[in-house]
Design brief:
alpha+beta, Heat Shock Protein 90, Ribosomal Protein S5, domain 2, 2 domains, eight-stranded mixed sheet, five-stranded mixed sheet, 30% helix, globular, binds adenosine-5'-diphosphate, binds magnesium ion, DNA mismatch repair protein PMS1
Length: 364
């Protein structure tokens, strides 16, 4: 056997498939780019459940001409210049991998305009290696529309899998957009699927000003009555094993504020059906298996019949977590996670304690 380098095109395809792992990540990256561009209006359009096309249109700042060439090149980003900036980064993207990876696993094109007055933009298309091909002028207002055609065409096994589960995969992607529609105030979201020429609306929210209003727009307004506002501040002891090397140099605790909504254990009816748990770290949706498990466990002590509806944003200091863990950024490494969970459980027990009487009364 001889060791040899894999050719560049193959490397690009291999690594791209790790960043864009499914339809949900593709949509997530595009929606996050729209949010990072300051959009207040984001419209997601699937064609045939996203199999043929995913299109995300925004009214954000648009993309300057001098940035077109580097847009979809690997590790080209306007958001981060060096590793040291990572702790301060406030944008959802920072690695400059999404557009490059989408080029590697699909056909990418866009139209963009930075002009607030002239309704004229430019069409751009991209090669699979991420090189930009500048097209003609198109009529469009300020903002960007990104089109992804035939996702995973270059990865036959994944394409087949996506085709087989298209409906479910689209539902997962919509769940992610829903997570953003709930947590972002001042942004209007719309999701449609064009199926055999017919357009179906899956999500439509106005730009409202509060989490409660967002919740009511996304789900049924009547479900609001069964929700309590969540706002707790935890003083979480810093796990010394994490900062052992620093010889106790760091602070002995870190403040975590949790805001959001949670269903009353005493209101078993009127909650929306299905999985309704949305967790965020500083407004970024994440998949918090251990945190969610802890919340469900405490809730069970007050209501053994159902899982709670939860929308919870964990506001953490930038140095208390690391989002650069997995290529899709959905796994977040929380420092002192065990301590955080212990504090959270205790705080939730206290939070629900007044509810206990109500529920017991109802149960009788
Ligand atoms: P990242 O978001 O990590 O920077 P991406 O590959 O997602 O990497 O995007 C590369 C760059 O393209 C971004 O840094 C941004 O400058 C620009 N960009 C992408 N999408 C948009 C958009 N919808 N509006 C404005 N700029 C965009
Ligand atoms: Mg991005």
């Amino acid at each position: 056997m001889s060791i040899q380098a894999i050719d560049r095109t193959s490397v690009h395809r291999l690594t791209s498939g790790q960043v864009v792992i499914d339809l949900q990540t593709a949509v997530k990256e595009l929606v996050e780019n729209a949010l990072d561009a300051g959009a207040t209006n984001i419209s997601v359009k699937f064609r045939e459940h996203g199999l043929e096309e995913i299109e995300v249109e925004d009214n954000g700042r648009g993309i300057d001409k001098e940035d077109w060439a580097g847009l979809a090149l690997k590790h080209h980003t306007s958001k981060l210049a060096s590793f040291d900036d990572l702790a301060q980064v406030e944008t959802l993207g920072f690695r400059g991998e999404a557009l490059s990876s989408l080029c590697g696993v699909a056909t990418l094109s866009m139209t963009t305009s930075t002009s607030p007055t002239l309704p004229l933009g430019t069409a751009l298309s991209f090669t699979h290696a991420g090189e930009c091909v500048v097209g003609g002028k198109v009529s469009r207002s300020k903002g960007t529309t990104v089109k992804v055609e035939r996702l995973f065409e270059q990865l036959p096994v994944r394409r087949k899998e996506l085709t087989k589960n298209a409906k479910r995969e689209m539902a997962k992607a919509i769940e992610l957009v829903t997570a953003y529609a709930l947590v972002k105030t001042g942004v209007r979201f719309e999701v449609r699927n064009i199926l055999k020429g017919k357009s179906q609306v899956h999500l439509q929210t106005p730009a409202s000003t509060s989490l409660r209003a967002n919740f009511s727009n996304v789900f049924a307004p009547k479900s609001l009555a069964s929700l309590m506002d969540l706002d707790m501040t935890l003083e979480v002891p810093t796990d010394k094993t994490v900062i052992k090397r620093l010889e106790d140099a760091g602070p002995s605790s870190t403040t975590v504020r949790i805001t959001g909504l949670i269903s009353k254990p005493s209101a078993p009816h009127g909650r929306p059906a299905g999985n309704r748990q949305f967790y965020y770290v500083n407004g970024r949706p994440f998949a918090p298996s251990k945190v969610a498990k802890a919340v469900n466990e405490v809730y069970k002590a007050f209501n053994s019949n159902q899982f709670p509806v939860v929308v919870a944003d964990f506001q953490l200091a930038p140095d208390a977590y690391d989002v650069n863990v997995s290529p899709d950024k959905r796994t977040i490494f929380l420092h002192s996670e065990g301590n955080l969970i212990a504090c959270l459980k205790e705080a939730l027990l206290r939070f629900f304690e007044p509810e206990k009487g109500t529920f017991a009364m109802q149960a009788i």
